[in-house]
Design goal:
The protein is of the alpha/beta class. The protein has helices at 2-14, 23-27, 65-80, 102-110, 117-140, 156-162, 190-197, 201-210, 216-222, 232-247, 251-265, 269-283, 287-297; strands spanning 40-46, 49-54, 86-91, 145-149, 152-154, 166-170, 174-176, 214-215, 227-229. It has a six-stranded mixed beta sheet with strand order 1-2-3-4-6-9, sandwiched between helices.
């Protein structure tokens, strides 16, 4: 059944292409002269779906100084965009990302400003907090974020995907917490989020302390990703299909679900239930509930419902 759905999505996806273009190529939206971004390509491949593509393929999508600020700007805008209900994140070129661009970032990390140890440390802490915001903004964005990984996902790439809501990958994908190999502890989200994603604390410790690679099958069995696809083209079709399914639901329900899932992850069951009660005492008054109930009684798909923008 899944293969049928993916083939159907792939056909829809190809229908969006210009003549002679490959599917994955058409998904990309190269930064135009008027684009505010130099490291990201933004496109809208389907209604209510925004595609954010890491767009430095010539540098293996390494994360330079511009990337860290552009991601914050991008996701802050997406969070406020009523036309966007779901986000798909992927990487252009041969791999998802090689992680931090050490050559470009060295001056910030290795030569922070300050006259003494205290001032240097103070400034370095501000720099680290700024980099942490780059991925925390993904987690805070109320729109669900589906990330699609192909090839290598190294270092900062793992920090990025652990802040996303749904993780997909190709059969050739591999993941590596690389930081111990360059003399530091991962400091922008992996060590905080990965233990909440993977059930085995021992496995998380092993990956973080040895910097070994985790390949697609192990990533799937451990819970890091929920689906593995044969190749990038099929994965992107699957990601779009999933994004379309989510976008077709009530944005009140979808965004409320994401916010409460994250809150409950970080709080006790009792606190999560109390927060949920406070949340839904207002959100249950939406017209979306009546529309969905009416569709169910008439045995219609929610795809037939036009939900208002949120």
């Amino acid at each position: 059944m899944l293969s049928v759905i993916i083939r159907s999505a792939l056909q829809k996806y190809r229908g969006l292409l210009l003549p002679g273009q490959a599917a994955v190529r058409a998904m990309s939206s190269s930064s135009s002269p008027g684009s505010p971004y130099t490291t990201l390509a933004i496109s809208h491949p389907a209604e209510s779906v925004t595609h954010v593509e890491l767009n430095r393929p010539e540098k293996r999508n390494a994360m330079n100084k511009a990337f860290w600020s552009e991601m914050v700007t991008c996701f802050n805008e997406i969070a406020e965009d009523p036309d966007c209900r779901v986000v798909v994140v992927s990487g252009a070129g041969k791999i998802f990302t090689a992680g931090i661009d050490l050559m470009d970032m060295a001056s910030d990390v290795l030569q922070p400003e300050g006259d003494d140890v205290s001032r240097i440390s103070w400034n370095l802490r501000k720099i680290i907090a700024k980099y942490q915001e780059t991925f925390s903004v993904i987690e805070r964005c109320p729109k669900p974020v589906v990330v699609a990984v192909h090839g290598a996902c190294v270092g900062g790439g793992v920090d990025l995907i652990t802040a996303c809501d749904i993780r997909l990958c190709t059969q050739d994908a591999w993941f590596q917490i690389k930081e111990v190999d360059i003399g530091l502890a991962a400091d922008v989200g992996t060590l905080q989020r990965l233990p909440k994603i993977i059930g085995s604390r021992s496995l998380v410790n092993e990956l973080a302390l040895t910097a070994r690679r985790m390949y697609a099958d192990e990533a799937k069995s451990s819970g890091l990703v929920s689906r593995v696809f044969a190749d990038k083209e099929t994965m992107m079709a699957g990601a779009l299909e999933m994004a379309g399914e989510i976008a077709g639901r009530s944005p009140v329900a979808v965004q409320g679900t994401k916010i409460n899932l994250i809150y409950s992850r970080d709080h006790s069951v009792a606190e999560g239930l109390d927060y949920m009660a406070s949340w839904n005492m207002s959100m249950l008054q939406t017209q979306d509930v009546m529309k969905s109930a009416q569709a169910a009684m008439e045995k219609k798909s929610t795809k037939t419902i036009e939900f208002s923008k949120l």
